Amino acid sequence: MLSQLAVISPSTTLTAVMNRALSLRGLKVSVAEATQLDAVLMAQRLVEEGASVIISRGKTASVLRERLQVPIVEVRHTFFDCINAYHKAREVSDRIAFLATSDGYATILEKARPFMPEVAICLIDPFGSAQATEAQLDRLRADGIKVAIGGLSLERAVKIRGMSYVMSEADTDAAFDAIDEALHLLRIEQERLQKRLELQSRYEMIQSILNCVSEGIFSIDSAGVITNMNSVATQYLGGRACGDTVAGLLEQDYFGRVLEKATAVRGALITLGRLSLTLSIAPITLGEQVIGAVATLQKQTEIQAMEQKMRRRQARLHVAENTFDSIIGSSPALIKAKRLAQTFAVVDSTVMIEGETGTGKELFAQSIHNASKRRLGPFVAINCAAFAPSVLESELFGYVKGAFTGALSEGKAGVFEMAHTGTIFLDEISETSADIQLKLLRTLQERKVVRIGDDKVTPVDIRIITASNKRLTHLLAQGLFREDFFYRICVLKLQLPALRERRQDIPELIGHLLKGFGLPAAMVGDPLLARLSAFEWPGNIRQLGNVVERLAVMSQGREMIGDWVEEVLEDLPDATATVAASAPPGGLGDSEQEVLFRALACVRGNREEAAKLLKISTTTLWRRMKKYQDQDPDVFARTRYAQP
Asked: CB neighbours (10 Å) of residue 469?
């Protein structure tokens, strides 16, 4: 701190007094001695070396205040200075003149004149013309002055005229006061410097933060003059800098609107040169007065890239893991369904998948997605039967903050938004209410969604696949499904075969399931395999997987034979019981052949109607009949039940 304090003395007397005062205070500060003409150059050098407060006296202090930007503390002249110097001069002669080089010194001398009779007071400007100074000194000599009292700057000029010279005195108390004032100013200056450094550091930190963001950010004052801007804004604004006005920058006066009405601008699409940008402006207010605004600029391409990045991140949570290679089986019915699904995958039309529970509807939906041009996008699946209608609506379309009680504080995106650029799979679409069907219809037509509680429309680019384990045509006929919605979702229809219609795939499916448990397919012997293949499997592949898993757990790595196998299979009805349970009321017995005879008789031998009556497929009916026809080709032709 003391290195920032300097003393420039205009007299040898002041030099001695300052050195003594600094020593008594324990301060190591050097005192430089200079004439008034040399003091300015010396002070400038000291300031360059780090001095921030300078102590001096009289005219020298006044001149330093005019020429420098640092605080100048003056060691003031006192009454005692004048009296002490007067008594020293009296030892030489009583013809004495005080050479006052400052108004303050002259004022003190006038007040002390009553105590110094016959003393001449001569006001001399050391920075005035040399001729004027010489003339004043010549007049003093001519008037008989023998002793002059002053500072360093006039000593030589006085002595060459034969007059004696006494250095002006300096009061020790005045020196102490000057030192105290200088130290106080030095502390203030250091605090100011510290605050300035903190502000500068804060400013640089804010500027660094602003320069780190991808948006262009700048501020304006109430007159529309740019007050601050980051590097990105400098690039976007085409040469405009701090101090320039934003007037004429845009075709529409967005800035004037914000400054006048204190209304923010959000996401305005603008063009600056060749750049397509998004502009947002927020007013800066003090009380009720708008004192400026802050604006952000962002390239529209960067917004789109960020949106795609966020969607890709979300898409990783919604991935279709299965492909057509994941579909096990080589039966004609399955091959036909796979080929049709592969055809559907090439186009972007809506697909309706129908099939009994457990036939693999989502497996086919994922396969279609992964074979389509949308395979890099998300695959979002939702089971429409898993939610109440009001909850399903929020899951499908999303909602904004405060849309309803229990809503998340930040709002939530619906599955349609999540599926943007990808595929949305609406399973069990038959379970949706009429209101939901109407809203889905509008979304499918317009490819736009509106969150619950919001009025903003969000475009979505999606492919829709729906699924149902019920015949939608039957629901349509009963008035349980909207006709307009049905035609919108049933552009392409895929009917999946039940497991009983592709029994030849059962051994391959069992082998695949056992492989998943790390077990060989050979564990299932031919008798057990035949029994498993003979079941109707109303739960289809899901039910088959359940039974195989139970068999795998029970086997403990052994071949699947023994009583425990019967325990696993006892929950499965045999073929005869399955058909008999589906027989018309008033059946004639519990044999399968008898049940088949009666069903055919009821419908005059129409196999399709008989299958519907028995609630089995026509393929199953044909297979049951063939078993008895192999034994006797005319068995059904001769039966008394052939006609009602």
From this structure: 19
Q: Which amino acid is at 638?
A: R
CATH topology (fold) of 90-166: Rossmann fold (3.40.50)
pLDDT at position 351 is 96
Confidence of residue 380 (pLDDT cuts 50, 70, 90): very high
What CATH number does domain 502-568 carry, 3.10.450.50, 1.10.8.60, 1.20.120.1810, 1.25.40.10?
Answer: 1.10.8.60
pLDDT of residue 180: 93
CATH code for the part of the protein at 324-495: 3.40.50.300
Cα–Cα distance, 51 to 100 (Å, whole number): 28
Architecture of domain 1-75+170-211: 3-Layer(aba) Sandwich (3.40)
Short-list 142, 140, 186, 182, CA closest to 165: 140
| Collapsed DSSP state (helix, strand, coil) of residue 50 | coil
Contact of 22 with 176, CB cutoff 8 Å: no
Distances (CA, A) of 298 to 154, 237, 274, 293: 71, 12, 13, 17
Query: For the purposes of burial, counting CB atoms within 10 Å of the CB of 357, is it exposed (0-12), middle (13-18) or buried (19 or more)?
Result: middle
Q: Which are the contacts of 193, defined by CB distance < 8 A and separation ≥ 6? A: 52
Nearest to 365 by CA among 489, 274, 502: 489
Rounded to the nearest 10 degrees, how much is the dihedral formed by the CA atoms of 562, 564, 567, 569? -60
Q: Classify strands 53-56 and 5-9 as parallel, antiparallel or unpaired.
A: parallel
Tokens representing 368? 């279609």
Tens digit of each residue's pLDDT (9 = 90 or more) over 29-88:
889 988 877 889 999 999 998 888 999 988 888 889 989 989 999 998 888 888 999 999
213-303 topology per CATH: Beta-Lactamase (3.30.450)
Kindly report whether the global pTM for this prediction surpasses the value 0.85: no
Residue 264 is encoded by which pair of tokens?
Answer: 């923010």
- Compute the distance between CA of residue 622 and CA of residue 155 in angstroms, rounded to an integer: 139
- Domain boundaries of the chain, sorted by first residue: 1-75+170-211, 90-166, 213-303, 324-495, 502-568, 576-638
Please report the pLDDT score of residue 640 as a whole number: 45
Compute the distance between CA of residue 521 and CA of residue 482 in angstroms, rounded to an integer: 47
Q: Decide if 90-166 and 502-568 have a common fold.
A: no
Contacts of 104 (CB under 8 A, 6+ apart): 58, 74, 76, 77
118: left (phi over 0), alpha (psi -120 to 50) or beta: left
Angle at 581 between CA 576 and CA 585, to 5 degrees: 125
Backbone phi, then psi, for 272, in 5-degree steps? -120, 110
**Dist. CA 149–CA 147, nearest whole Å:** 7
Looking up tokens 């379970």 gives: 431
Of residues 327 and 638, more confidence is placed in 327
Sequence-distant (6+) residues with CB within 8 A of 188 are: none
Mean pLDDT, the chain, rounded, equals: 84
**Interval 607-621 mean pLDDT:** 74
Q: How far apart are CA 198 and CA 258, in angstroms?
A: 32
Tokens of 283: 């007013």
Mean per-residue pLDDT, 587-600 = 62
Q: How many CB atoms lie within 10 A of CB 31?
A: 17
